Amino acid sequence: MSVYLHDIPLSQAQARLRDALQEADLWRMLGMEEIPLDENALRRVTAEPIWAEISSPHYHASAMDGFAVRAVETSGAQPSSPVTLYTGPQAQYVDTGDPLPEWANAVIPIENVESLDVEGEITSAIRQPAAIRIRASVPPWAHVRPMGEDIVATQLVLPAGHILKPVDLGAIAAAGHQSIRVARKPKVAILPTGTELVPIGAKLKAGDILEYNSLVLASQVKQMGGEATRYPITKDDFDLICQHVAEAAQTHDIVLLNAGSSAGAEDFSSKVVEKLGTLLVHGVAVRPGHPVILGMIDRGQQTMVDGQSSMVPIVGVPGYPVSAALTVDIFVEPVIARWLGRRPLELPTETAILTRKIVSPAGDDDFVRVVVGKVGEKLLAAPLSRGAGVITSLVQADGLALIPSGTQGMEAGEKIQVRLYRNRTEIEKTILAIGSHDLTLDLIAQFLAEHDRRLASANVGSQGGLIALKRGEAHMAGSHLLDPKDGSYNISSIRQYMPGIPVKVVALVGRDQGLIVRKGNPKGIKSLVDLAGSSGVGSVQFVNRQRGAGTRVLLDYHLNLLSISPDSIMGYNQEEYTHLGVAAAVASGRADCGLGVAAAAQALDLDFIPLFQERYDLVIPKPFADNDLLAPLFDLLADSRFRGAVSQLKGYDVSMMGTVILEDG
Amino acid sequence: MSVYLHDIPLSQAQARLRDALQEADLWRMLGMEEIPLDENALRRVTAEPIWAEISSPHYHASAMDGFAVRAVETSGAQPSSPVTLYTGPQAQYVDTGDPLPEWANAVIPIENVESLDVEGEITSAIRQPAAIRIRASVPPWAHVRPMGEDIVATQLVLPAGHILKPVDLGAIAAAGHQSIRVARKPKVAILPTGTELVPIGAKLKAGDILEYNSLVLASQVKQMGGEATRYPITKDDFDLICQHVAEAAQTHDIVLLNAGSSAGAEDFSSKVVEKLGTLLVHGVAVRPGHPVILGMIDRGQQTMVDGQSSMVPIVGVPGYPVSAALTVDIFVEPVIARWLGRRPLELPTETAILTRKIVSPAGDDDFVRVVVGKVGEKLLAAPLSRGAGVITSLVQADGLALIPSGTQGMEAGEKIQVRLYRNRTEIEKTILAIGSHDLTLDLIAQFLAEHDRRLASANVGSQGGLIALKRGEAHMAGSHLLDPKDGSYNISSIRQYMPGIPVKVVALVGRDQGLIVRKGNPKGIKSLVDLAGSSGVGSVQFVNRQRGAGTRVLLDYHLNLLSISPDSIMGYNQEEYTHLGVAAAVASGRADCGLGVAAAAQALDLDFIPLFQERYDLVIPKPFADNDLLAPLFDLLADSRFRGAVSQLKGYDVSMMGTVILEDG
Question: Which of A346, A568, B75, B193 suits B170 as a labelling partner, its CA being 20 to 30 A distant?
């Protein structure tokens, strides 16, 4: 068993797969089927060009309700000298869409006609008068839709490889078709493997991993136009995996073998491929997604249909969810596109400014998930978590930025190409918040979503937020920075970190800060004094917030008052980036306590020892404060439903919500 | 019956509908349903915010295959002074994803470990050695995915009103859910009415109108997230329509009553609404789509479920296909969005330069379908057919431009806002061809589609094409302009109409031009001489091409040689814009003959009298000739499959295809 993977460049890996498919005569549309022309044809792909069988209209049709006439007989009609035409030989009533009589070549709209009875008097028998009187002439073919106005028989209606939209279906019907040949949907088998996997909904114990990759993969395949089969979980048994893969290969066009593709002890995937066929690639220089496996396996002779290839491609999809989803986008989408005869999916690309430095291995094509927002005139890309296990980074991503192999990363402020998942209009409705985290931000996100705005928040601590505002990288920052000199909040820090920038500061909430401890407070912690090694409580493991966080400033302020040295606190250098991260560390037993807000303790059913009260403000540079983009946010601060929702969180005080603390002129 | 509609502004019409829905307590999410978390949840809309039930990972997980250790016990390890840790108390093998033992706080990857046996010798028992030797220390939490790295219990995973993507389903599963509450799909009844309507697939006679609007409408509704019921066609019988509408209202959330909404004799829709409920709007100042009807009707007491509104909105959708589709986009989409709790669809908007003057009624919001392409650095919008009956204008449209009420139109060269149906990347792959029409262009479109390019062609005649090229409005023009002086093609016209612009001219095809006549040539037409009123053939009705078309230049040239005056030709001023248009005019009996290409006659099973041969060239400004965008086009001219397809058209000669006629330096 080879423990180390040999990564090849992405383009080489894609080329190997393409060459192998070409050799197996599988780099082409797989086949077609004729389906009825109904709503189920939506989003299917045309397998052939569609040519018009008939013209539309298929006759000269009246474009108005009115009277069909010979244009030449209307000549000379004027307001002062009307012309009278007798119904029957000279004029015939037609509704919109009616065919013109053979002899007619124009239509006079009904509203331009006086209906006359046999005596020549005006009558209300609009449709069947004896004659009509007109006071204006019409040119030939006026108010007529000539045959073929929309579609001329034999013309191209749609090319092959076209994804059908609603109006396309109408045009195909208008062109005389009642069924349509579309590309057959590629059949994709998805096999999750791993003894540690448990199905969605199972009761979890430590070490269990929820198997949801097959759900994501199947949904991706469905969205791409394929038909996915999700197999049940196969445990790590080589023969069993071989057997299930071989079975799947008999009835599918491609097999996705998920997990087991890292180089660890349970790595069967590459051996499975080697046993059942040819291993093309084991390891690709792409992040996330390194341990990708590509191969071709035998379909199994006895099940082959005439003309069918004897080979089936197989992709060993890495186990981490982000790697898995990107592997399908990168390797499987182009194959499905080819099999359907359509263009591969191409996301629109925009140039954005990177907000944070990114370090990237020089040998890899590195796909970085980013949040994109427009701040002033600048389009910004803020990198999300790089972890291959962090599926929320894909959920939150507005786009994907590629750091190509050959570069070791990019600096903050550099221009970067981003493939966008959302369109510009949506992105321009995104409020970028950066700074300190507060649970209220999740509630704001939910309420703003109801008002046509999206809140994308990055948690970098209060100080980091003000610095980001100074650099023009966000619309607002949540901040709770205590001034140790006078006990005031935020203003002195704002002047220090963003000098000369006019701002509006609005109070969001007052909140309790205190020690989050395990249920029942087993270590009997009462105050900050108990954190120091010298205290009587015994060894207390602390978990801290990151440098620059307001909570950390608060801690340092009080440690200083109490003359406690940070060195005497075990875990002072263990950093978490959110209140809930601190609470989770305590809940898991990794720490005995941490400083944070009551709501975080409540959320994970922990105990809370309130120590201080503080104010959490929103800091907004002046230009954005008067901007349409943020208007719904200010409305929210006065919304009783929102205030109610916040007050239900433990330890929160909404009495100052919306109060303007500072507004520069 | 009121014959004249009273049009109200679009915004007012939308407001009336919204107010009526609000009053009926229907301006809100309709309801929710709980569905299993599987692929069918894709594209459904979350009915509630989704909060995390569990953290992910839900335990501290090893991020690598390796050995779990206490970080503190690795300190001091260096290449020259290794540290040995005994398995059991100090080190424990873990696979990626395994939980850390209680006592461990870091993982050393297996590739950084030497496995030792009981004698302290290196062993190949990688997973179960007696001890491990390491030559580097690790910090705490190295190679560990701490609990909550991805998701912390209680955090917001997704807001309400979110359209579910594949990765979202994974995140929801990771957060501990196995089902999901989504908005109930709004039920939309679609009732086509009209005695003239026939279903798709019916044998057509003059006056029959194919009923495909219900297919387009149902597909739109499906794409918007609703559930459509297509009713069979109801003939124009007031009581029958009332009965069917009332039935549909009992089981649907909204009724779309299609056709019968113009002010003609068969206009029952507004009376139906008045009989069954309240007419809110009859006529909206919007083009296309004028005769829109909006109303609220009674659901019918006996079928009401508790809490359900007693009212159901009804939309009288105009009969013309473009009006019908736009009415649903404008009036129904925002309602469905509201009922689903999601944001209304918003197309991205770009500023483009209008290529042609548009005249628009000052009182109307006028929606113009446009083809969009990038020529050089300019984004151009070329208006398509304005006809409400021309569904192909929606099929071909890249976007929709609004000429707002209050303006009487826009000039060529003005900037216009376009709502784009395609993304920029696709638009930048569009080749804009403008000029003379040739059937070969349809074949080029089909072949280019296979090579990641889209051909959008506008037919304005050869001369119009050259003028458009001069104005920088297209990438190429098809042209067959005869120089009456020397019998050469195109070059003198190019110098005349686009002086100083370097071009490349490539021959596309040689083709026959001649008279297209009815099958059997009943009028016995032999040559141009027979067109003149004085000829012996008798009265011949001619159909001409538009001014500037190469075919018209050819006609005028030969008429001049024969000293025939255009005034002597009946129908000389009847203009068609394509060869097939001319053929259709002859096939329908509207004309006896027209000058055109053989292929057009063949397409409609007409006879053809060849008179002349001519060359049809592609004219390409130099910068585009060397551009990536057009490269696949030049490849095509050398492609034997393409040449074969063209030679199968009657009257075409491909021997010169691809020959460079002129290339400026």
Answer: A346
